[in-house]
Amino acid sequence: MESASGPWQDAVVRHSLAGRAETPVQALLLARLRDEGPLSKAQLADRLEVSRTTVGAEVARLTELGLAVEAGPAASRGGRRSTLVDLSPDIRFAGLSIGATGLSVGITDGRLSTLAVRHAPCDIRQGPEQVLALALETTRKLMAEVGVDGLSGAGVGVPGPVDFHRGVSVSPPIMPGWDGYPVRDVVSRDLGCPVVLDNDVNVLAVGEQHAGVAKNARDFLFVKIGTGIGCGIVVDGELYRGVDGCAGDIGHIRVEDFGPTCACGNTGCLEAFAGGAALARDATAAARSGRSDILAGMLTDGADLTAADVGAAVSQGDPVAVQLIRESGRRVGQVLASLVSFFNPGLIVIGGGVTAVGHSLLAEVRGVTYRRSLPLATGNLPIVLSELGADAGVIGAARMVSGAVYSSEPARG
Amino acid sequence: MESASGPWQDAVVRHSLAGRAETPVQALLLARLRDEGPLSKAQLADRLEVSRTTVGAEVARLTELGLAVEAGPAASRGGRRSTLVDLSPDIRFAGLSIGATGLSVGITDGRLSTLAVRHAPCDIRQGPEQVLALALETTRKLMAEVGVDGLSGAGVGVPGPVDFHRGVSVSPPIMPGWDGYPVRDVVSRDLGCPVVLDNDVNVLAVGEQHAGVAKNARDFLFVKIGTGIGCGIVVDGELYRGVDGCAGDIGHIRVEDFGPTCACGNTGCLEAFAGGAALARDATAAARSGRSDILAGMLTDGADLTAADVGAAVSQGDPVAVQLIRESGRRVGQVLASLVSFFNPGLIVIGGGVTAVGHSLLAEVRGVTYRRSLPLATGNLPIVLSELGADAGVIGAARMVSGAVYSSEPARG
């Protein structure tokens, strides 16, 4: 239960918001209400293995803090009626999920149900000032729309490595200008609330775990195939970040000794063969060389094609586009097969923009992964598409900051 | 702290030994004494955050159970003298580490210091009856030698996948006759003590973590290059087994689409290129074809060469043998580079029989791994040889069963 654990201490900017758990029991109560919905005091006492007196006192304090409310009598369990407790209806979180070519922003309630979500195109290469300005403007508009004037917290995901504890981007290959940029503190100052920053793949994994297809999975991988390729790793229900916070950086696994140059400067990276940018590059080449009339027809004003164009060409039955998708799936499957042998996960979720092309990609990934892994590890291994799509980023980002706000750890900043 | 966790409940055969922790606090006390040595009651109370009264009562009970002793007054900390507590000097564990071509057996005290260790050659392909008979006979001889008539527990490692909870080997590629064999129960009946069974790589990883080079590592990989190749994964100080218990099976990661046939029946597996059996195969071919006079000189009676012969040829400066070792290291490094990008470990320990050839292998593994991984993940990543060698298996196996004996979970059988 991350709501009572240490790392948040470093990872969140301190704010003097009234609404914040003060004790580990309060934190556990809030996390239960978030994950299970309204519960009676008797149920809360059972779940937390503490006395009803303790629950009563802690709920009273949470009510004073504006985090919980008493919501009438609970259904009878035979004995004395217990009181139903719920999260305060005033709690609002924002989730800002920033990708390489688009961003999603959402406002959620305390249980992380989205009240409103908006998507906007963006170009991460324009640098942090411009991209964050767009994200923050979108957030404020959305807040006005749903009548929210203050947030309890905001989660932010960015498409590159992050120093989770310092809240900054670090040497992101596809994000010029972002290296060392204090994303967390800038967003926190602007929105006036605690902020947690993580990379987009971790945020997506957590979103799918909270409300999507990975809801009951303890050990799973979330593989994002977008402009780049990355992987969120969940071990025993918790995100695994690695000792330097860069676990899951599978886009730069070398799949060939030679090959196209990657955004990171090396050659042979998975991402340079199979990511959205690679698809766009290969599709553009196929269009210009006359190998595909359908792709050539999509070339306008001499601009390069996008991964979305490849998807459109697939849906029109273009064999070159289908072949590009298959080749991408084959490369991803090749790497996943190794990871399955190593990690023996219980589930693999595939998400990210490229999955818009859907089942032809999934079929190829599945085929290669199952064929090349040991039967013992794949006997019962579902490989499925993300259920929430872009909303996973919004929910995951909100989930991350809810873990900090519902925590009793002293925050910092 | 595995001494108080759930899985042991399934993984250990029940025995009516007197000596077994009865409460979580007793279990934590025993684990502290194992890992830190004698401690005063005051120190134990501090470490466990319980009252001195509780420590006094639990230590008294552990003394009755024959698990702990009071060892005189502790050094003064200023106030009232506290009493020093130690593990009972009567506690004895056995560690049985069975490899494909040899086994190691050791007897340890309660802190897992080895009192005696013996190595014997064996051939895992002779099947469980014969191999276990040898291991058990060696154990009994060793017990007689050091004057032990009863064990508090025994840990067993075998060179293949294990159903940890049922205590049986499962579909082990290089172990005909072992599939489904109830190793744990057979050893437990013979030695009359609780037994924990795991695969040899996990056992080696735990041994290195308890007493070797990985002593302070929380997230690390132990890579064994023996007849086969496997990997023990430690996440946040605990072994990670995967959802089916087969995590770390990296020997069967496919590194080429085609290649020599592996013991598992597939082609292109890492193990079939780089394991000890592959080295022996390639060295024999080189000897027979006249490519290496030194290797040819080692051929006797038409028998095949072994990986140890390759090591001997390397120390004589044979260029073919050196090339074989380099090639093996290159293949292992190629796979490790992917795993480093994925898992971002803090340490990689290389062990197993092939490491007897030492630094030429390590240099190659290091070179390829560092070159092919992202700088962020390798900036501070030591890749080192096992410190304990074969003793790691003995200590790791004893460590595993100590976790069960020092646990308060009801055991089963």
UniProtKB/TrEMBL annotation, chains A, B:
It holds the Pfam family HTH_11. SUPFAM superfamilies: Actin-like ATPase domain (SSF53067), Winged helix' DNA-binding domain (SSF46785). It comes from the Bacteria. Gene3D superfamilies: 3.30.420.40, Winged helix-like DNA-binding domain superfamily/Winged helix DNA-binding domain. Residues 28-72 form the Helix-turn-helix type domain. InterPro entries: ATPase_NBD, HTH_11, ROK, ROK_cs, WH-like_DNA-bd_sf, WH_DNA-bd_sf. Belongs to the ROK (NagC/XylR) family. This is ROK family transcriptional regulator. The lineage of its organism: Bacteria, Bacillati, Actinomycetota, Actinomycetes, Propionibacteriales.
